[in-house]
C-alpha cells in the first residue's frame, strides 16, 4: 500500500515537502473547526462512475450501474461482498467484469442521471436529440434489429448499450462534462470503435477514451496516479481523494496563512474562510484566486460568452494548463469536507514519515501492491475510515426512487450494504 | 315475342339467373341506352324499368309496385312451382306466371327449347294487353323486363333465335337497338307481357334468401328511373344495364354540361349514380390544376370540365336539393355556380343533356350576364389568385383542422409542454377554433373579439413578452422576395402594374358592398344559405390559403388575408378608396394621410419591458399586467395622436386594442392604420412576405383586424370581376415553387408598396431592423417567439417541415431565455457579507459542479436573477432545466437534491 504513496511522493518531489508537512501537522492541530453542516453540499466525489458490467461467463449478460467505488462494487456483484444487485446474483453468470466505466462525474446526481439515461435510452430526454442521428443509422448491421426509438426494455446487446453510451456522451447534458470512458475489455472496445466509425458525429473532444485492462500491451504495475492514466484493472483505480492529497496538502498549507495571498486575478486579498479560493493545482505554483475571478478569467479566455464552466485554462500565475474539474474537486473537498481533508493529510503525513523512516532503513520502496482503498483502512484518527463510504451510502442507489431500501441500509461500517441501481426490468439472458 | 323470350330466359335463370342476365344485359344496355338517348326522359325511364324486372330485381322489394302486385298475386303459385318444378320449368312458368298458372304449365315444356320462344311470345302478347290495362309502371317494367329477357334470350339462344324467333322478337331486338320511338310504342305491349316478370317474382323467396346479405341500391331517382336503375344495379347482369345508363350519363358528364356542376347536382348525382363521389373530386381537380399551372384563363376552361364530370342528369336539373350534404359540396357550390355560368359553351357540347341543361344554362346565363365581365388577363390572374380553394375533409375544412392549425396546435402543445409558464398562453387551438366557429356573417365582429383575446395571450413569448409582429415581417419579406423571383412561375412585371391597378379597384370596393357580394354569391349559389355558405367558405378558404401561403412562405394575397402588415395597408387603401369612390387616386391620398398620421404602435408586439418603458414615457406608473399596460398605452396614444389621424383610423386602433370592432369597415380601417408599415414591408419583401405578415400579425390585435379585412377584400374583388373563385387545393405540404397566384400577389404587393409611398417604406425599414425573420406558419402559434420563428423561416426556404420549425422555434425561444439566464447567473453579485463559502452564488455553485436544485434556481431567477438582466419574466422550472442541460449543468429537483 505504501508503494503507491511513495511513487507519488516521488513525483511530487517529497524532499521539499517534508518540512511543510510538519508544519502542516502543527497547523492542522490549530485548524479552524469550521465545517459546514446541513445545507452544505457534499464535496465533489473523488470518483464516480457508471459501468457496464458484463458476465465473463455469458457475454450477452450486461448490467449498467453506477458507483463511487467500482472496486467494492464489483466485489458485491460477484458475491464477494454483500450488497450486489439482484440481477447479478446468479451464480451462473458470475464472475462479472467491468468491461468499461464512464468516470469523471462531478456529482452523484449527475452520475445517477447518466446511469438512468443509459439504462433507459428510450425514455431519456438526453437521448432525444440524438434520435435523428440514430435514425440515420437506423439498423444495426450486426444485430439487424431496427433501432427504432421504442426499444423494448428487454435485454439489449452490447452494441446497443455502446450506441446509447455514444449518444449520451454526445448529448448536450453530458458532452460538456469532464467524462472519460475507460475500456477494460478489448473486445468491447472493438465494438465501440466499430460503432464510432458508423456514427456520423464524433464525441466531443473533452471526453477522453482511455484504454485500460487488456487493451494495454503491458499491464501497469502500480496504482493509477492520475485520472487519465490507465490503471490496468479495476482494483488499481484510484477512487478516493488520495489522488488529491498533494494538491490538497499544498492548498491547505497555503491557505492556512492567507494574509499574503492575493487573488491572481483581482489582486485582492483572499479570505479562505469565507470565500471560495481556488489554488493552482500545480504544486510549484502558489497562485490563488477567487473562484469567480478565476472562472471569469478562464471563461473570458475561451471567448464563449455562453459558457458557464470552463473545462480548463491556464493558471494566471504559472500559465500552466489547469483542469477546472480538478481544482473544483479539491476546492469542494477542502471547503466542504474539511475534516476528511485533514484526515487524508494526516494519513499522508504518516505515510511520508514512515517512508522517510523506511528510507533511512533502506527498505526497498515497492515491495507490495495493495489496493488503494486499504490505505484508508488503518484508521489513524478520530475520523472513521469509512467516512467517505458513509457519504456515499446512498451512492449506488437508483435514480428517481427506484432504490428500494434507502433507510434500511445498515449504517455499520463493517457491513455496508449498498443498494445498487439495479436494472430491474432488464432481464438476464440465460 | 321478345317478352316471351325474356320470360324463358328468366325462368331458366332463377336458379342461375346470372348467366342469362349477364348475357342479356349487353343487348338490354344497348336498347336501353338507345331508348333513353332517343326518347325524352320519361320514356327511357320506362324502358329502364323493364330491365329490372327480369331476374333478381323483381324479387326485391325495390321494384316498382307492378312487381309487387305480380308477386303478391303470383307468389303462392310461384313458390309452388319453384319448389315442385325443375328450374327450367319454373322459368317458363314464371314467364307465363304473371298471367296465369295454367299458362305457366303449358309453357313449361317449351321453356328451354328455342321453340318455346314463340309460345312465350304468344303468351306475352296475350299478357301484354292485361298489363297495359294495369298500371303504366308495370307495363314499363314489364317492357323492360321483356327487353332484358329478350336480350338474355337472344344471347342464349342466339343461334336459335334469329331463325326460330318470331318476327316480333327479331323486330324487338332490332328495334330496341335502333331505338325507334315506334318500337317503344310497341314495347309497352311487349312489356306488358312482362307478366313474365311477375312469374319471376315467384322466385322471390329464393332470391330474397340469396340476397339477404346483399344490400340493394337505394332508390333515389324518380320512381321510374330509379326503379329501373335499381333493378339493374341489383342484378349483376342488370348492373351492366345500369352501367349502360350510367354510361350514357358518363359520356354526357365528360362533356361539358353547364348545368351539372352545381353542388346540388353533384349531390344528386352521387345519390342516383354510383360513380358520383369520384366525380366530385375530379371536378375540383382540373380547376386546381389550372390554378397551379397559373393560367388565369384556365378558370373558364376548367369549370366546364368540372361540370361535365358532375354529369347532369335531367333529374338533377329537376331536383335540386338545397341542402349540401357534404362540406365538399358546400365548398364546391360556389364554384359550381360560376361553372355553370361559364359552362354555357360546354353545355352545347353535351347534346344529350341539353334539355335539362338548357333551362339551367339559360337561368345561369342570365345570372352570368351581370356577373360576367371580361377581365383583362392580369385582372383575371388576380382573381384567380384571390380565390381560395379549400379541399379536404370536413375537419380540415373547418378552420381549426387545417394543416396549419394542426401544426400550430402541435407547436403550441409542444411549447406549452416545454415551457412551464405555458399556463399564461392560451391555446392557439382555441383561437383557431373560435375563428372557425364564427360564421361568415358573424365572423367579422365576434371573431375579432374572441380571437383577439386569445391571440393576445398567445402572442406572448416564451418569456412572456409579446412578439413584435413588425420585426418579423421584415425578415419574411426578404425571404419571400427571393422565393418568388426564384420561382418558376410566370411573373410578368408588366402585369403587376396592371394587376395592381385592377387590384385597387377591386380592393377599393368596400366590404360594405356585401350586398353586391351577396348578390354575387347568391347568384353563384342559388340558395340564400348557399350564399352565406359560400362566403363562409370563401373566408375559410382565404384563411386556409393564408395558412398555405404562410407555409409556403409565399404570400399571394396582398389585400385580404394578410392581417396586420401587408393586409393592413391594402385594406386601408381599399377603405379609403371606397370612401373616395373607388378612385385609386383617392386611395393613394388616404394612404398618404394614414402615413402622415403616426400609426398607433402595436403595443401587443412590445415586450413587457418595452411596454413598461412606454408607460413610463406617458408619465404613468408602472402597471402590472401586460394587457393593462397595452390598454393604457393605447388610450394614451389615442389621446395623443388619435384626433390627428383620421377618425376612422383612430377608432380602428382603439377597437383593435381594446375590443372587437363590430363593423367590418372599422376593422379594415383599424387594420389599415398599422398597415402602412406592413405594406411597406410587404412591398419590400415579396408576396411571400405578405402571407407571412398575416400570420405574424396574427398576434391578437392585428389578427382580429386582419381577418375581417381579408374577407372583405376577397369578396369585393371577386364580385366585380365575376370571376369564379378558383381555390387552390391546400395540401399539408407546402408548395416549393410559388403558385402563379402567389407570384402575382407578390407583384401586387410590390406595386401597392410603391404606391404606399416613402413613409410606409420608412416604417417598414424600422420594422425590418427590429424584427428578425419569422416563419410564417409558426407565427400564429409561436408568435410569442418571434426570434425563433424568424430563424426558422430564414433557415427553411420553404416551411415544409412543421416539426422542424417548431423545434427550431422552441430552440430559439430557449436560446433567448438561456442567454438571459446565463447573463443573470454571471451577473449575480458576489455575496459580500457572509462570503461565498457560506452563500455561494449560483455561478459559483455551477462552477463547483453542484447539482442545481431547479426549484431554488428558478425561484431565484424569477425573483432576482432575471431582474438583474432587466427581464421581467416568469420562468418555469422546465425551461430552467432545459437551460441547465443545455449547459451541461447538473440539475435536479429538490427531492433528489439529497443524493
Automatic annotation (TrEMBL), chain A:
Statement: the UniProt record of this protein carries the keyword Acyltransferase: no
Cofactor: a divalent metal cation
A single cellular component GO annotation: Slx1-Slx4 complex
GO molecular-function term, one example from the UniProt record: zinc ion binding
Compositionally biased spans, kind Acidic residues: 389-398, 417-430
Keyword flag Nucleus: yes
Extent of Basic residues compositional bias: 144-155
Subcellular compartments: Nucleus
Keywords: DNA damage, DNA recombination, DNA repair, Endonuclease, Hydrolase, Metal-binding, Nuclease, Nucleus, Zinc, Zinc-finger
Pfam families to which the protein is assigned, alphabetical: GIY-YIG, SLX1_C
One of the GO BP terms on file: double-strand break repair via homologous recombination
Family annotation (InterPro entries): GIY-YIG_endonuc, GIY-YIG_endonuc_sf, Slx1, SLX1_C, SLX1_endonuclease, Znf_RING/FYVE/PHD
Domain (GIY-YIG) ranges: 46-128
Superkingdom of the source species: Eukaryota
Primary location group: nucleus
Residue ranges, annotated region (Disordered): 123-155, 348-430
Role summary: Catalytic subunit of the SLX1-SLX4 structure-specific endonuclease that resolves DNA secondary structures generated during DNA repair and recombination. Has endonuclease activity towards branched DNA substrates, introducing single-strand cuts in duplex DNA close to junctions with ss-DNA.
Family in the record: Belongs to the SLX1 family.
Subunit structure: Forms a heterodimer with SLX4.
Entry protein name: GIY-YIG domain-containing protein
Protein species of origin: Penicillium olsonii
Lineage: Eukaryota, Fungi, Dikarya, Ascomycota, Pezizomycotina
UniProtKB/TrEMBL annotation, chain B:
Post-translational changes noted in the entry: Phosphorylated in response to DNA damage.
GO cellular component term, pick one: Slx1-Slx4 complex
Basic residues bias locations: 132-141
Keywords assigned by UniProt, alphabetized: DNA damage, DNA recombination, DNA repair, Nucleus, Phosphoprotein
GO molecular function terms noted in the UniProt entry: 5'-flap endonuclease activity
Entry's localization field: Nucleus
Compositionally biased intervals (Polar residues): 642-653, 698-709
Biased composition regions of type Low complexity, renumbered to the chain: 11-25, 529-548, 783-802
InterPro entries linked: Slx4_ascomycetes, Structure-sp_endonuc_su_Slx4
Biased composition (Acidic residues): 725-736
Biological process, per Gene Ontology: DNA recombination; DNA repair; DNA replication
One Pfam family in the UniProt entry: Slx4
Region spans: Disordered: 1-193, 294-318, 424-445, 518-606, 640-743, 767-802
Chief location category: nucleus
Entry similarity comment: Belongs to the SLX4 family.
Subunit structure, as described in the record: Forms a heterodimer with SLX1.
Matches recorded under HAMAP family: Endonuc_su_Slx4 (MF_03110)
Role of this protein: Regulatory subunit of the SLX1-SLX4 structure-specific endonuclease that resolves DNA secondary structures generated during DNA repair and recombination. Has endonuclease activity towards branched DNA substrates, introducing single-strand cuts in duplex DNA close to junctions with ss-DNA.
Name of the protein described by the UniProt record: Structure-specific endonuclease subunit SLX4
